[in-house]
Design brief:
The chain is globular. It has helices at residues 60-67, 133-153, 170-181, 195-200, 212-220; strands spanning 5-9, 14-24, 35-42, 48-56, 83-91, 103-107, 116-120, 125-126, 161-164, 185-190, 204-207. The longest helix is centred in the middle third of the chain and has 21 residues, at 133-153. α2 (133-153) crosses α3. The protein contains five helices and eleven strands; from the N terminus they run ββββαββββαβαβαβα. By secondary structure, it is α+β, with helices and mostly antiparallel strands.
Length: 221
Amino acid sequence: MDSFMRASITQEETTMETTIRKVLIPRFGDESVLQVVEGTVASPQKGEVQVQVLHSVVAGSDVNMRRGTYPFQQKAPLTPGYSMVGRVLQNGAGCTEFAPGTLVACLTKYGAQAERINLPEKFLVPVPERVDLRQATALILDWMTAYGMLEHTAKVTRGQRIFVHGLSGAVGTALLHLGQLRGAEVFGTASASKHAELSASGAVVFDYKQKAWIKQMQQIG
């Protein structure tokens, strides 16, 4: 469905609105509550950039928001979409960092499951043209979470050991590889079916259903 422009004129200013399609969670529940609806997005305001969404993630956080169980989330109705990659369409006043057509990514938390979205310029990062955009979209939430844990919380340095519960999950996988890039030795738990793959990646992995890892880690020191 092509978007079209509609002008809403007041005595003070002219505001352009674009009709778009977006995902809506009208009430909390299972996947059957999801709707694709028509809505509008206004012209970007000062400090905002309007982006045409090319790819948006459907993460565990989005699923929990649909259920109404995500911590401190907005009340329904809401449009999900925790991160996205897209192209700049229009800059609001004061925005000069990204020219129209530039590929950008953003950790949006809400609203990215839509055809267009207005976002603060300061939260956008450029995306190289030659990367796989689906892979880039998948990296934003989980790998930024892992990076923040390693860099800002744990402050992991070369030669340290880290232990990750849920090593085969999205954030766990990111912690494994980012931790190794920092020169850390990575240990963790995962289901038995994932052990061969994780071991091949250089992790020391334990069955999460067993508690043997506690004694073994104590012996390692």
